[in-house]
Amino acid sequence: MKEEQQCNNNKTMISTNLTEEAWLQLRQSRFTGSEIYKLMGKPRNKSEYLSETAKSYVYEKAGVILTGIQPEIFGRALEWGKTYERQAFDTFAAQDFKEYTYYGGETFTFIEFNEISGFSPDGLGEDSIIEIKCPFNSAVHLRNATITDAESLKDNHPEYYWQMQFGMLCTQTEYGIFVSYDPRMPESHQLFTSVIELEDIREEVEEKLYHAGLMLNSIIH
Q1: Cα distances (angstroms) measured from residue 192 to each of 179, 180, 198
Q2: Burial bucket for residue 181 (CB in 10 Å: 0-12, 13-18, 19+)
């Protein structure tokens, strides 16, 4: 499979058709959208820039970079999400009049924010990102129906809030669509979507990444 670079209407370069090895190497050496929330907490010591959770994440990333070994993550919930993500995308896309492109699964796509961070989208529209969740716990899916905007997403799932905010920064889009899907539900309750607006978080994200980068460099060099 030949690696390709695409450019969307916002002039964002998207590396697609990466080999799995190349994709993993990009992710291993960078802070990623799915874990960026670990950097965003407020430290208890106001004289510091990174929380203890953030520091632990930096040490984890340093360990991966130095050893070349990414800890494997297993679980029924993870496998469930992987199994039904494409079905969730197709169900969503069939109900919307806009055109979307699926980038999840084994498309191995990565968008760099800077030299130490980046984002792998589930899907992209002309002016939006698509973030898909397929909760293994149906109660979580039903609770996701209460999400209506960025604030309620942050209240319910701060990790998804930061993932989407960072994804919008990476893709230079102004909004994203949060999709929750559960194929076990009756059709009326299978799919919930909400529009999540980009908030004024660029400076905060860049500051956290800057200090995380300084700490990372001090560990690995």
Answers
A1: 6, 5, 19
A2: buried
Please state, as a whole number, how many other Cβ atoms lie within 10 Å of the Cβ of residue 1.
Answer: 11
Report whether 194 contacts 177 (CB < 8 A).
Answer: yes
Domain CATH number, residue 190: 3.90.320.10
Please report the pLDDT score of residue 119 as a whole number: 96
* 164-201 pLDDT tens trace: 999 999 999 999 999 999 999 999 999 999 999 999 99
50 φ/ψ angles, rounded to the nearest 5 degrees:
-115, 140
**Number of domains the chain contains:** 1
Expressed as residue numbers, the domain containing 155 is: 4-220
Q: Residues 124-140: what's their mean pLDDT? A: 97
